[in-house]
Amino acid sequence: MAHGRDTLVRDGRARPCRRTLRLLGSLLLVGTGLSMTGAVPAQATAPTPLDRVIPAPASVAPGGSPYRITRGTHIHVDGSPEARGVAEYLAALLRPSTGYRLPVTDHGAGGIRLRLAQGPFGAEGYRLDSGRGGVTITAARPAGLFHGVQTLRHLLPAAVEKDTVQPGPWLIAGGTVQDRPRYGWRGAMLDVSRHFFTVDQVKRFIDQLALYKINKLHLHLSDDQGWRIAIDSWPRLATYGGSTEVGGGPGGHYTKAQYKEIVRYAASRYLEVVPEIDMPGHTNAALASYAGLNCDGVAPPLYTGTEVGFSSLCVGEESTYDFVEDVVRELAALTPGRYLHIGGDEADSTSHEDYVKFMDRVQPVVAEYGKTVVGWHQLTGATPATGALVQYWGLDSTSAEEKARVVKAAQEGTGLILSPADRVYLDMKYTRDTPLGLSWAGYVEVRRSYDWDPGAYLPGVPEGAVRGVEAPLWTETIEDSGQVEYMAFPRLPGVAEVGWSAAGSRDWERYKVRLAAQAERWKALGVEWYRSPQVPWGAAGR
Ligand code: NGO
């Protein structure tokens, strides 16, 4: 990896051990005259208003006294192991900064309560009721409890994110939040091929996604510059095809155990991992690893540049389909999620006829191993399988003909994930002066990535065809976590809101104020971000 080379911002910080920090925190508290019981200082700050949450909840009814988390607070769950898992996650989040024990129990009342119950919540919605006696989050499914916990987090002071004891007080405004998402697919993509990212770096990103209720992590696992997942039946893909990256660094790949760890961690944050193997183009790393995958039987050298469109699997060769089947089988076995992304973009070195033939052969293989096909929208130039989803990455200037193909596919039942490059590509520069990123789709400032409606984006697409939105982060120029964050923040929370909140509830002028308030949280978490002049950051922006 090229980490540490010419980094814009620092990655991973050395952290003193928790116990030392806690001790220091206590000493500080004593020094400021506050008590560890959370005694409210005279100038107690007002609790965060219930609507100061990103993404904006469906409805908010403020009222009544706030609840205060204290040394005596318990987290109550009823029964299910999933609810307990969410409760333990919440406790682990709150313990370092509050310094409280916050035991998770399955009896008693008051305090914080996580409850699974029937109600109008859907798969991911929840209700949060807060008052003097406690906070209760109710949902039909554990994912709803988890999203409710993220709302609770946003309602607490930003200092709650710190990993040392903070003075508090830990107040949650009184009232009720009722919430459920507009779309079921709210994704982010990380390109781990152009530059490799370690398991820990991916986990860090997952935690940032969870904070904004994003529920899909799409991993772009193969491209011309690197193959990043171990495939037992074709070992050189990872060991040789994964041995470099853009710029010539050493690259890397995930062993199956490491990949499973990413999937497990994502699931613990209620994110589904969508693995992508890009085919038939964007395959130089595979072609370099096995001469037999090339029509002329000659393996090209590994590639570390950033051109696209020059590689293709050999569509007419039977062994190509043995390769595809082996890869799909092994990847499907690593994937508890429903989807497998087969790429299909920029197959400029594959004839149209071959492209159609290839997709006709490969899509049934994905189905055979129990997964639903996702492809970039060029798949609509072939015949998308029944139930397939296509990911639209065009822009305003995309030809009417190309847009019409996508609209027609949607009318015929293909689901759409919207990733318009001139709105939500996180690798686009914000302005001419952005030191990282690309600009082929133009500059994408924060307002532009927020101010659009997926439901009205491609006229003629039936309402139900839009399954959601996804923000891809391609990494030709991105090498470490600090750079990932600089490109993702502050655009990512906006895309999360585009995917979660009703179109009618979204308004840039009000959003930018809520967004500015996030800055304290990013600071507490050590997350880098771009200080866009479009957002009134105030003192937090310094
Ligand atoms: C395109 C291309 C990728 C690039 C990316 C850079 C798609 C779907 N294919 O998006 O190979 O990395 O742009 O912005």
| Overall pLDDT metric | 92
CATH superfamily of the largest domain: Glycosidases
Q: Which ranges are low-confidence, i.e. pLDDT below 50, for 5 or more consecutive residues?
A: 1-43
Largest sheet: 8 strands, parallel, barrel
- The radius of gyration computed from the alpha-carbon positions, rounded to a whole number of angstroms, is 24 Å
Terminal CA distance reads 31 Å
How many strands appear in the DSSP assignment?
19
How many helices? The count is 15
Helix content: 25-40%
> Numbering strands along the chain, what is their spatial order in the largest sheet?
10-11-14-15-16-17-18-19
Shape: globular
* Number of separate structural domains: 3
Bound molecules: ligand NGO
CATH architecture of the largest domain: Alpha-Beta Barrel
What is the CATH fold-level name of the largest domain? TIM Barrel
CATH class of the largest domain: Alpha Beta
Residue fraction in strands: 15-25%
Class by helix and strand content? Answer: alpha/beta
What does this structure look like?
The protein is α/β, with parallel strands linked by helices and 542 residues long. The chain has 3 domains: 1-31, no CATH class; 42-179, Chitobiase/beta-hexosaminidase domain 2-like (Chitobiase, domain 2), CATH 3.30.379.10; 185-497, Glycosidases (TIM Barrel, Alpha-Beta Barrel), CATH 3.20.20. The protein is built from 15 helices and 19 strands. It has helices at residues 18-32, 81-98, 142-155, 199-210, 236-239, 256-268, 284-289, 318-333, 352-368, 400-411, 421-424, 446-450, 481-488, 491-500, 508-525; strands spanning 59-62, 67-69, 75-77, 104-105, 111-116, 126-131, 134-139, 170-172, 175-179, 185-191, 216-220, 222-223, 226-227, 272-279, 339-343, 372-376, 389-392, 415-418, 466-473. The strands form 4 sheets. Strands 10-11-14-15-16-17-18-19 form an 8-stranded parallel beta barrel, surrounded by 7 helices. Strands 1-9-6-7-5-3-4 form a 7-stranded mixed beta sheet. Helix 2 runs parallel beside helix 3 (142-155), helix 4 (199-210) runs parallel beside helix 6 (256-268) and helix 8 packs parallel to helix 9 (352-368). It is globular, with a radius of gyration of 24 Å. Residues 1-43 have low confidence and may be disordered. The structure holds ligand NGO. Residues 308, 345-346, 376, 393, 425, 427, 438, 474, 476 line the site of ligand NGO.
